[in-house]
């Protein structure tokens, strides 16, 4: 039913993350190419084959693939396997999926080679977009992907007990939702596979994510929520699809980042989400960052050395 946030106090200031030394080819470009082989060693990482995380449906919107660090960059996998960061893309729930047989350029965003160099495996996940299915299809798919990754973790030398999620914008919304609905049967579909595995995540990184759909002030004429929830959606539907409505003591540790001049997703909802999570799980498990500038996803801010240090420092504490 959500958390009563009255009287929870003021939001503490940002706690600086410890400096992380990043090794490897940070920020260098690799060739964009279709990778259909089982794995490809390139620039210090290994790209593994795409997989269907829902057996038998053949949908491109239910593909994922894993990228693991090469020992030359991060050393051997730690005991238990690589910790895993699952990237859930944004795009207003309308776009952003990769194509079958092609992967994104891992080096295109500095955060990804930095995570690999710091010893984290990565997973990139598609999910059904709103042109294919409305809510809650998106979260059902993301939870099915987490279950699949956990159930098959040993095949990539990944630690099934150390799985975090990272996303921005609508991807941040889905990451937050994963972090606050562990064990909620309304948002699980065991028939999609790996029913015996958990969709729990150890930590959430959300950059300019949408935490409260009822507080989202539309910044232009395009209403993403019509495609997401359907024409004629109600405030109750929007609230139930909001991560903040589900915050309780089982929430995962969370890093929330949002620029104060965001022109697409109003930033003022994020401190409210921060306060709710702090009240539920304690100050020590929540980190926030609200740069004055950065708009909606400026790489100069959200892929900056400061952001990378903050994000990887958070992962080091909780994953």
Could you please describe the fold and organization of this structure?
The protein has 319 residues and is α/β, with parallel strands linked by helices. The chain has one domain: Rossmann fold. It is 25% helix and 17% strand. It is built from nine helices and ten strands. The longest helix has 15 residues, at 137-151. It is globular, with a radius of gyration of 18 Å.
Provide the descriptors you would attach to this structure in a database record.
about 325 residues; about 25% helix; about 15% strand; globular; BD-FAE-like_dom; GDXG_lipolytic_enzyme
In short:
The protein has helices at residues 71-74, 111-117, 137-151, 170-180, 224-229, 235-240, 269-281, 299-302, 305-318, and strands at 39-42, 45-48, 51-52, 63-69, 82-88, 121-125, 158-168, 203-207, 254-257, 286-289. By secondary structure, the protein is of the alpha/beta class. Strands 1, 2, 3, 4, 5, 6, 7, 8, 9 and 10 form a ten-stranded mixed β-sheet that branches.
The helix/strand order is: EEEEHEHEHEHEHHEHEHH
Find the structural class using helix and strand composition: alpha/beta
Gyration radius from CA atoms, angstroms: 18 Å
Helical coverage, percent range? 25-40%
Mean pLDDT reading? 87
Largest sheet: 10 strands, mixed
Residue fraction in strands? 15-25%
Outline = globular
Number of domains: 1
Organism: Bifidobacterium avesanii
Keywords: Hydrolase
Protein name: Alpha/beta hydrolase fold domain-containing protein
Domain BD-FAE-like: 81-271
């Amino acid at each position: 039913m959500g958390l009563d946030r009255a009287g929870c106090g003021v939001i503490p200031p940002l706690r600086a993350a410890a400096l992380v030394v990043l090794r490897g080819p940070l920020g260098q470009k690799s060739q964009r190419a279709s990778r259909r082989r089982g794995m490809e060693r390139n620039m210090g990482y290994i790209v593994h084959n795409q997989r269907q995380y829902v057996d038998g449906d053949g949908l491109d919107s239910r593909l994922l693939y894993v990228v693991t660090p090469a020992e030359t960059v991060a050393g051997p996998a730690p005991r238990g396997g690589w910790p895993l960061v699952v990237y859930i893309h944004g795009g207003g729930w309308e776009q952003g999926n990769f194509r079958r047989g092609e992967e994104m350029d891992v080096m295109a965003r500095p955060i990804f080679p930095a995570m690999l160099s710091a010893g984290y495996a990565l997973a990139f996940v598609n999910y059904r977009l709103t042109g294919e299915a409305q809510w809650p299809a998106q979260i059902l798919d993301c939870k099915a992907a987490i279950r699949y990754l956990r159930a098959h973790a040993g095949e990539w030398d990944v630690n099934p007990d150390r799985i975090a999620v990272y996303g921005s914008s609508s991807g941040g919304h889905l990451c937050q939702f994963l972090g606050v609905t562990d064990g909620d049967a309304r948002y699980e579909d065991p028939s999609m596979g790996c029913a015996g595995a958990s969709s729990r995540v150890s930590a959430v990184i959300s950059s300019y994510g949408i935490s409260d759909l009822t507080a989202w002030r539309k910044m232009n004429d395009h209403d993403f929520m019509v495609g997401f929830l359907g024409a004629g959606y109600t405030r109750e539907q929007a609230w139930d699809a909001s991560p903040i409505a589900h915050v309780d003591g089982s929430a995962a540790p969370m890093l929330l980042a949002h620029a104060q001049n965001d022109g697409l997703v109003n930033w003022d909802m994020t401190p409210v989400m921060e306060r709710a999570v702090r009240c539920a799980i304690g100050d020590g498990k929540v980190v926030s960052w609200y740069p004055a500038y950065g708009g909606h996803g400026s790489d100069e801010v959200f892929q900056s050395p400061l952001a990378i240090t903050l994000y990887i420092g958070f992962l080091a504490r909780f994953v």
